Amino acid sequence: MDPAFSILGKIFKMGFQPSTVTLNTLLKGLCISNMVGEALDFHDELIAKGLFLNGVSYGTLINGLCKMGKTRSAVKLLRRLPRLAVKPDVVMYSTVIDGLCKDGFASEAHGLFSEMIDQGIFPNTVTYSSLIDGFCKRHQWKEVTQLLNHMSHSGINMNVITLNILMDAFCKAGRIIEAQTVFAKIMKIDLKPNVFSHNILIAGYCMINNVQEASEVLNMMMKSGLRPDIFSYTILIEGYCKNKRLDEAIYLFKEMRSRNLVLNTVSYNSLIGGLCKAGRISFVRDLLNEMNHMGLPPDIVTYNMLLHALCKRQELDRAIALFERIVREEMRPTAYTYNILMDGLCTGGRLYKAREIFQYLLMEGRHVDVVSYNVMIKGLCKEGLFDEAKALLDKMEDNGLLPNIFTFKAIIGHLLDRNEDEKAEKLLHKIVSTDVSFK
């Protein structure tokens, strides 16, 4: 951007006036460089010099603001346009509507949609798609239906993107039959389903544990001449692992490699997660070696899965060694990482070590959540240290963390084991008073 602005300075020094195309190019350059604030300052300087900008200029600024998550500023700029002698167009409105929907303000976006129509600016497929997506994410199906009807009456045809949005929403809501219907509609109106369409349906079937149908969708995709991408395979591998069909997951993983797809850490994690849950650690080690060989370092998700498997198998020394490696490699262990290790240590009778880690987290001001407290309370109760567990419960509440049913179950179970029914009953009354629900 610096050399570009040097050329602008040269234009002024030579006594020329830059054209709107020149100014728009600079505005676009600033916006795509994530320098939207500088773009707005540049805009103000140009207006102060008496230079005029056009709809393309403001469309660029509005788009830049929305991409930076500054949708409110984009709305204000859109409102200013009439005073700047620029008429807002469908692209500007659609951009702001899309930004509002992405921020979760679908109702406000719909208000802008109505305003747009009142001004004689007619929405297009992009406008409708953004609004439909916004309402789908909020499960406001009535509004979605109204928009689809309005779209149909306005003579605007849905495209694959609109239909993919609907499919994705139905799948995430567990409404796979409606998703199938939309998929069929794509083909019925002579639109070719793309890879994303198939991936949505694969994910939908996997969500309801119907991996057989998900596999059929993958085969259908290949038969139609489409090349499955890395997400197609990753989704289905996770589905197989979830349903404990590891041999099929491994076969699919090998097929993915044979098709020369560029694998990433997420691809490996999809299989590693299933293998860890099944206790097939030797296979996991092979995959970790392969990842390192390919220059794909395992991330904290990979290590968390392996740590959980080791703790579950009570291979605590190896779990501790792995945790030390995570810290040594500066992988930034999460609260979940610490909770896995503390739970494994408590279960394996190493309460002293879990207590050391928990105290370290408190002293260092690290994030300690309800699960962390629950793990320690359960571990203390297991060792018969009820008073210490009760003190930890009080400390938890003092720190503004609300106990859940698992917190109380650990203590109540311990009291019942010790035949201290009266104390258990008092704690049950506390559960009712704090509105903790049993699940």
From TrEMBL:
Which family does this protein fall into? Belongs to the PPR family. P subfamily.
Species the sequence originates in: Acacia crassicarpa (northern wattle)
**PPR repeat positions in this chain?**
19-53, 54-88, 89-123, 124-158, 159-193, 194-228, 229-263, 264-298, 299-333, 334-368, 369-403
Which Gene3D superfamilies does the annotation name?
Tetratricopeptide repeat domain
Keyword Ion transport applies: no
Q: Which domain of life is it from?
A: Eukaryota
The protein's matches in InterPro entries, at most eight in alphabetical order, are given as: PPR_rpt, TPR-like_helical_dom_sf
The UniProt entry, under Pfam families, shows: PPR_2 (PF13041)
Entry protein name: Pentatricopeptide repeat-containing protein
The answer to keyword Repeat applying to this record is yes
Q: Could you list this entry's UniProt keywords, alphabetically sorted.
A: Repeat
